[in-house]
Amino acid sequence: MVLRKLSVFDDYAADVLFRLVHQLTLPALLLSVLPNVVISRTMFLLPLISTLVILATIASATLAGKAYGMNNNSLAVLVSGSSIMNLGFVMPFIQSFYGDDGLARLFLFGIPNGLSACAIATTFSGRECWVYKKKLAIKLMVSPPLLTLIAALLMNAFGLHPAPIAVAVLHSIGGLTIPLILLGLGASLRIAKVTPFHLAAAIILRMLLGLALGVWLANLFHLEGLDRAITVLSASAPAGFDIIRLASIEKLDREYAATFAASCMIASMLLVPILLTIF
User: Fold this and answer.
1) Distance of alpha carbon 79 from alpha carbon 240, whole angstroms
2) Which residue from 27, 37, 115, 139 puts its CA 20 to 30 A from 246's CA?
3) What is the CATH number of the domain that holds 8?
4) What is the pTM of this model?
5) CA 278 to centroid of chain Cα atoms
6) Which of these, 77, 88, 82, lies nearest to 110 by C-alpha position?
């Protein structure tokens, strides 16, 4: 945030940092972690729970937006921001407290989150051409993190491990993920004047509703220990910064999107440490 204030970073710099994470460091982190952890059966409940959280949030945000009389551009931001979780924000906390086992669960929880970004991008696209939407969907579905995640899970299932020299390189590159994410988040922070009720609804839907759903679903599926902690932390994560990019591309309410994402991140700085002490 200080670097942004000093004009060392701008919007383009933040985008470059996130692209570097997306294209290089996060895939390296996935390959350095997932092939080497023990994956239990209960861990595969995490993508299911993530899907349920996303669907419930989309429905709640749609109803809330219509009740507030939001225009379509603002409603699209509310629905997308409420349902897309910024799991990159909670990643540093999870790695510090729970190590590679926590990260492995976070990656599994995040599978539906990435797919929902694809679905929302195509749904709220202002372009009616089905060819455009198909290309956008394909681009998101074949993203490096998703493909690497699939490859890493297959390696784990078949007991395949990278060579020692490859592991060293992957650890070095993957270790850049969290510092780059933190720099990108700080550089992306921007708050504008928006309708207070719209902002309050956004924060409540993404974080408090997400927290309530995470606790309820963890209890429903009888999750304990690390599985429960990752579920609750992930479900209550702040809004994903993808909404800013989506709002810019599709000509949505960009000020609302930027303030939504930034406000959730600030609130999470208070909420996440509390949740870590409880769960």
Assistant:
1) 12
2) 27
3) 1.20.1530.20
4) 0.87
5) 22
6) 88
| Full domain range(s) for residue 172 | 2-278
Amino acid at 29: L
Closest by CA position to 243, among listed 220, 261, 262: 261
Question: Which residue type does 273 have?
Answer: P
Q: Distances from the Cα of 59 to the Cαs of 171, 199, 205, 238, in angstroms?
A: 40, 18, 10, 18
How many structural domains does the chain have? 1
Structure tokens at 144: 């490096």
From first to last of its 279 residues, the chain has per-residue pLDDT tens of 888 888 888 878 888 898 899 899 999 999 999 998 999 989 999 999 999 999 999 999 999 998 988 888 888 889 888 988 999 899 999 999 999 999 999 999 998 887 776 566 556 555 555 555 566 666 667 788 888 999 999 999 999 988 889 989 999 999 999 899 888 888 877 777 788 888 999 999 999 999 999 999 999 999 999 999 999 999 999 998 777 777 766 677 888 888 998 899 999 999 999 999 988
